């Protein structure tokens, strides 16, 4: 796949950077006490996590988790677990970093997983919250960088058919 699908730029790299600055400032205040285990949700959250980690000024360790609902398609399916965190979550303060909050199924399941594993505190941050009335959970992220319309988006870690995660901006299919 050499041609990007028909799309328009939704957020430039500069706009994303400003949103990450603002989100990190809030997270730094809320996570100032104690040690945190930051869990990056692979693969979509990788770019965001790399950018945010440089902005954090609190004590943290890093781990990852890999779950998928889209499997390189544009439609969500059942949650597939590929990798669980290596760290013991018992009594930990956990911050989950993910790319997008769409229907909410994935992030709500990850928060439940961490709580059931004994985490003392679980907070979550997402780069993008998709604006629509199809949320399938009452759970909402603690920290949100940007909002987007109810369209398929890609770039800055988010893929289209497995490609285009490497784009420095966020695009919306037309």
Please state the structural category.
alpha/beta
Evaluate the radius of gyration.
Answer: 15 Å
Tell me the major beta sheet. 6 strands, mixed
Total strand segments: 9
Mean pLDDT: 94
The percentage of residues in β strands lies in 25-35%
Weakly predicted, low-confidence segments: none
CATH topology: Rossmann fold
CATH class: Alpha Beta
Give the topology:
Elements: E1 7-11, H1 13-30, E2 36-42, H2 46-53, E3 60-68, E4 80-83, E5 93-101, H3 105-116, E6 121-130, E7 143-148, E8 153-154, E9 170-173
Parallel strand pairs: 2-3, 2-5, 5-6, 6-7
Antiparallel strand pairs: 1-9, 3-4, 8-9
Note down, in words, how this protein is organized.
- Helices cover 22% and strands 32% of the residues.
- It has helices spanning 13-30, 46-53, 105-116, and strands at 7-11, 36-42, 60-68, 80-83, 93-101, 121-130, 143-148, 153-154, 170-173.
- Strands 4-3-2-5-6-7 form a six-stranded mixed β-sheet, sandwiched between helices. It has a three-stranded antiparallel β-sheet with strand order 1-9-8.
- Strand 2 (36-42), helix 2 (46-53) and strand 3 form a beta-alpha-beta unit.
- It is globular.
- The two termini are 18 Å apart.
